[in-house]
Amino acid sequence: MTAQLVDGKAFAVQLRSRVAGHVAWLKEEHRITPGLAVVLVGDDPASEVYVRNKGRQTIEAGMKGVEHKLPAETSQADLLALIEQLNSDPEIHGILIQLPLPKHLNADLVINAIDPAKDVDGFHILNVGLLGTGQNAMVPCTPLGCLMMLRGHLGDLSGLEAVVVGRSNIVGKPMAQLLLRDSCTVTIAHSHTRDLASICRRADILVAAVGRPEMIPGDWIKPGATVIDVGINRIARDGKQQLVGDVDFSSAVEVAGAITPVPGGVGPMTIACLLANSITACCRVHG
Ligand code: GUN
Question: Which domains does the chain have, with CATH numbers?
Fold first, then answer.
């Protein structure tokens, strides 16, 4: 058996086009241009690529995109002052602080300084609490993109056995909350989990978000399962740089019913969801 590919690029094209439609409507009918500010502190090359892509796609959707690039040695006070300024800027509806931040900055404090209504990453403690209690939260982009693909591929998720490997605040924990909200039976596995292989083998839905290249082999996957690979790992193979996921694609594709490729799976949906969250934030402010 060869798994069907879950085409994140195609899902993202559809979502971006819906977003662009909303933007056009907001501009024409309400004279409002949704605005997204992205803040990058330091010069981490991977973060620079992500931020550039976010900025480009924001503009392509017809939104206002503002990029703040700050030096690595920026003080906490200066960063908080910028956030305060963005919080009170009526033309900015969404604020994203690119993570990771340099070590001398307190990421929790910085994130919780963002106006929760403009927290398009869904990382503010208020949005985390709203999601955890099943209320109207801003939902983190990567897990939201994964959920959209799962629903698009499987339809109703209720009663399915879901295993999330990874417990980060950015992906693992919110992913588990979203699957629970869709009535899956959810297990969160992590680096201390015993017999990870047999836990993964139970999964109708397996979400891998550990950041370890090709850690999950095909024989940990239940035949026919839907596999969402969140990992984006750069490795050197045959003298070349290559992007691989957390799942060993070549063996997994023989067992799974459906699988997201890396690249071209989860990645494109993350930015599309960021744009969608920015529209949500804009519409909430303007009723
Ligand atoms: N770094 C890696 N993923 C993310 C994300 O989803 N949001 C932000 N702000 N930073 C990240």
Answer: 31-117 (3.40.50.10860), 141-268 (3.40.50.720)
